[in-house]
Amino acid sequence: MITRISYTRAQSIGTCGRAYRFRYIDRLEPVATSIAMPFGKAVHGPVTDYVIAHALSKPFDIMANFEEAWVKHTSDQQLKYPMNWDADSSYAAAKRLVELFPEAWEKAQLVAVLDQSGAPLVERWLVVPGPPGVEIELRIDFLVMDLRSGAIGVLDAKTTSAEHCEAFGSNALQLTTYQYAVDHAFASCLGPVANVGFMEFVKRKVPKGSKGQGPSIEPPTWYPRRSDEEVREMLTAYAIAARDIRDQRFLRPFFASFNSPCNLCDYARLCVHGDQQGYRLRTTSR
Ligand code: SF4
To answer: Cα(65)–Cα(62) distance, rounded to whole angstroms?
Structure first.
């Protein structure tokens, strides 16, 4: 039997088996959603559509698209905000990020690669064979070509409150997975991926006056193509995740430090006190 596992699920069970079980087996989710997810979708949607229009040389009204996306992703749900943030400051920061994107994309000197049917390889779902008995399912954000060098890279867009560090980017299994999947799906027509990277949309409050940095879009951070050994190690990580799911081994993790990330876990109340209040059955499939 083949186990199909997405990058998100592999990451989830690798982080905490119990949280994986609450989310994917018991299908529970908190009633109040963190603003992080709708914020990310409301920025990501217009940006993605802009990159598609840019690759096809079509006009596109990114701000009108943002207004629609914001309403769609933030209406009719109970939202939780981080300390010192609220609905207005979140909206203003998201809007500023989207406003900044066309110039940031121009400066990055990138264009989305087209597939054989002429469609930009943006937000593309792929299913590729993994280690024996496992299929890996993932969605790539952007497969792009650098207009200066002609290099092909896989770029992941992240909305984040802090920029990532080099050690994280060099080790991120997400990027290794993207390289492996794109190589598998497109190497025969495009050749192997040259590099992998993140483009970060940094969430900061829009400053009231001229002081303060405000939201920013960082230039893409590229990492060289992962080695064969790194790809093999990534496949082993998927094999372990798939085995734990098949064997229903949903364990608490070894935490890295005394400051346990349980404090940040959406399922802490349920996990620690067995209290189901504040959770509901998840209706989405992923
Ligand atoms: S509270 Fe901690 S152990 Fe419990 S599900 Fe969350 S991360 Fe896992």
So the answer is: 5
